[in-house]
Amino acid sequence: MILSHGDTSVLKGTGWNSLEIRSDDQIEIVAHRLVEEIPKIFKDHPLEVFIPVMLRDLDSFTLKTSNLVFVRSDSVQDIMRLRNISGVQQITTKGETTKARDIITVPDDYVQELIEECEREFNHKIAVGSFVRILDGSARDFCGHVTSVENNHAEVRVDLLTRLLFVKTLLANLLDLSHVDPARQVFYYCEAVRNLPEESLPLIQQDLKFSGKFPVFDNKGEPEGPGQGGRRKRKGRVTYFVKNLISEGITEPREIALRVLQEWREGRIRKTKNLFIVYCIIKFYLTSHFKFQDWRHLVKRMGPAYRFEPEDFLKLGVPCSVPLVTPPEKVTKDGRTARHKRV
Predict the structure, then answer these.
(1) Averaged pLDDT, 158-171
(2) Is 222 contained in some domain?
(3) Less Cβ around it within 10 Å: N or C end of the chain?
(4) What band does 131 get if pLDDT is binned at 50, 70 and 90?
């Protein structure tokens, strides 16, 4: 792992200095602190930091040089200031002094060899279909399969229990786990899964891929607790019905729309003022369910089956008295539907 600040081309061929990290289990934490503090310390001075990571996996961050990190810059005084960062034990100097003139220089050839060795450790060919672990970010430690590779970036599909998660990240942020047995390639792959006996693999088979279905628990026969008095009313609304369908694994918008119209026809749920409201409800809850930024991204990723427009309600073959949009004469000046006047 190499961190850079400023124009580092002027540092090519120059020697390195070494930082000693206080504890082996603080290496990742100190790396994050360096990223935050370096711009404040070095400002206009260039800097390179080489963290010789040998192993990076779940709860593992091991260096090839025990607890030494290498840095180089044209400002030795600023390098000495790095020892003030929490987690840095000291800058390696002669006699362990704190004077800049006693700082020990490590030859560039030695550090370049270390860089090549570390690159070989992580230079696995990640391609479409590879099983990988995400090393950092909001989806850190999740495992999934690569769906696309482009411009040194990859998109990873993570099959969770209740939804799909698509993560776009740098290839350098992925750990190749393609050697893992396909029967163990679950999103929570870890040592426990690796050591699971063959006869126990059926226990995790349902977690290998998101099926779109997961258990829905009903509370029939249970007494209503405090604050649950409005639940019966919500069950008769389109919002509750659509959310329940999606939770049962029915996610194609046309199928959801068709079931809403059928429920209206049977009188089991309350009708909305127009069909466009139902269209917006379906879009909102599907986008939230699949964790996409917007409807356009969902359609692009999920395919043609999810292309759905308000006019498609009229093509479902179910007679419906609800208009596609509210007629102009029934809309008030503030945009709301006018209330029916009692005669």
Answers:
(1) 85
(2) no
(3) C
(4) very high
DSSP run (H or E) holding 135 = none
Same domain, 142 and 111: no
Residue 142: which domain range? Answer: 131-207
Task: Let me know whether 163 and 90 are in one domain.
Answer: no
State the helix-helix crossing angle for 253-266 and 275-290, rounded to 10 degrees: 130
Q: Tell me: the pLDDT tens digits for 195-220?
A: 888 888 888 888 888 766 544 444 44
Do residues 179 and 67 both lie within one domain?
A: no
* 153 to 126, 146, 300: CA distances (angstroms): 10, 10, 18
- DSSP, collapsed to helix, strand or coil, labels residue 175 as strand
Residue 47 contacts residue 5 (beta carbons within 8 Å): yes
Q: Could you tell me if 193 and 255 lie in one domain?
A: no
Residue 279's alpha-carbon distances to 163, 256, 259, 275, 289, in angstroms, are: 21, 10, 13, 6, 16
Assess if residue 213 is contained within a domain. Answer: no
pLDDT tens for 296-341 read: 888 888 888 888 888 888 888 778 888 888 777 776 655 555 555 5
Q: How many domains does the chain have?
A: 3
Query: Which of 21-25, 79-83, 214-218, 250-254 has the highest average model confidence (pLDDT)?
Result: 250-254
pTM greater than 0.90: no
Q: What separation in angstroms does the CA of 204 have from each of 87, 163, 201, 317?
A: 40, 17, 6, 42
Which residues are CB-neighbours of 167 under 8 A, at least 6 positions away?
Answer: 134, 137, 138, 139, 142, 144, 155, 156, 158
